Amino acid sequence: MTIVVVIPPSVDPAAAQLTQTSSGPLSAADRDLLIKVRQAGLWEMPAGEYAATRAASQRVKEVGKQIRSEHARLDVMTRQTAQKLGVALPNEPNGDQQSWMAQLAAERGPAFDQDYANLLRAAHGKVFSTLAAVRAGTRNSEIRKFAGEGINFVMRHMTYLESTGLVEHGDLPEAPTPSPIPPTTFVDQKPGLQ
Prior knowledge:
It is built from 6 helices and 2 strands. It has helices at 13-16, 28-54, 58-85, 95-105, 109-137, 141-162, and strands spanning 19-21, 24-26.
């Protein structure tokens, strides 16, 4: 009696998560980016509305209005891109974002201003890193375009928030440690010594 064993080919987990689209392969990271940007808007738009009535500083009110307005435009782009690519998006912020919204909803005046500037600036720093990493590595032209636009929005928002003078830069995460620079050999390049 002969026994035949069939061993399935090994599957690369990353490749298994790829979906082919007309704009190129769509990865799990590409889908995650759309979800994260959507969730950012779902809490930052209401937070911008809070700024109109809860902020003490006129600059915080202006920044809230700018961010709310720009996130509304970014949300339209996010939903359109997700629809083209068949990505389901959430309709509510994640748990952390909901707690930040609750915190801001309970505050007024200078405490609101301080927390608004710092919570949003920290969140923008995190999504900026995600946008940059996906933009650098995506194989999907729609995601590449979307991530490039998203980077522009996030850069403006970080600048707006920093313009309030309330961002506590010392509380932001440290920049990544650079890779060690390999030692270089310097050669004396005096004329005639080659």
